[in-house]
Amino acid sequence: MILGIMGDTHKDIANIIHLIVEAFIRAGVEIIIHTGDIETKHLNAELFGNIPVICALTNGQEKELDFQFPPHGWVFTYPGNRVKVFKNFSIYVGHKKLYELLRKKESEFRESLEILGRDYDGIRWLFAGHVHRQIFDQDPLINCVNPGAVEGASWGYEYAIVKTKKREVTFSRILPTQPTIEKFKIAVISDSRNVSQLNPPFWEKLAERLKQEGVQEIIHCGNLVTEDIGIEALKDFKVHYTLHEGQANSRKPHDNWQIIRPNNPIVDINGYRFCVQHGLGGSLISKSEIDMLKLSLELAQKYPSIDYVLFGLTRAAFLEENEQLWILNPGDIINDQNFATIELPQNEITFGRIPFDPLPVL
Q1: pTM, entire model
Q2: Nearest-5° Cα angle at 84, 59 to 29
Q3: What is the torsional sign of CA 225, 216, 266, 290?
Q4: Which residue, 45, 90, 201, 355, could crosslink 123 as a Cys pair with Cβ 3.0–4.6 Å?
Q5: Which domains does the chain have, with CATH numbers?
Q6: What does the pLDDT look like over 176-203, one tens digit per residue?
């Protein structure tokens, strides 16, 4: 199923809703998820392309007369009744839930997801809004998505598209101005470890996928075995990579592989600056959203004009949009075959995965 996610449309002063719906139609969206803060004037099936809509009501709206009868094809969720069941999975559609969870430390956040999964068997996706920022947190069972805000985002008009079968999430936006910078796309990977031994076809499959998507440069955030430096499958890409402390680079230099030094963890691609901090994932476990904001500001002061902070170490893919920069973990390769792509200058971010081959029939 392909889901189109938007939220915090508020008054939609710029009349953007219909443009986002057009993007949903082009992507083949089957159901639209609205994560709340919608005005009564937008309760219009035609405005949403007559696509079925699941819309979260905010506190008190369920008692208002205008919200008693949803448009044809719409379903409302409200406090105490946020979960909707499909044939093979369930989803949570709320407004403030992700905000409430992210105020906690990472370990408490995981515990909250476990409780939600226990109370609602089969839930696989949690959608929420409220904070006007794009957020993604991948969990082995529940993926949490905040599509950002249609009105009130820091830059542009935000939305997301989810492909449930592939477990692929794309965060996108409509820009208020037309950039003169030519579009380009990079890939971000991390924690490949000894994937060449455990899963020999992986690099070939990843290379094929990235070529299809027009990627030219790759940033490897770390936890890479030296035997994979210069691997043939990635010969057509420029690869920026890190080595952990004490790991000797015993392989001969390769023209298309460029090491990121610990004393200068900045990768500059077409004027965009990526700060690579592989071990950051370990410290985030004990941090709340406010702590992460402070950390991002500290990094921005230490490394001026950075656009992205890239990290790894933890299994879960992660994204948080801050006012000045993005914090991103592409996820784990060994367990999930995760990767991320970033298309600039519009900051369209996709979290994808290479599917595992079916096991042989016994």
Answers
A1: 0.93
A2: 100
A3: negative
A4: 90
A5: 2-174 (3.60.21.10), 184-353 (3.60.21.10)
A6: 999 999 999 999 999 999 999 999 999 9
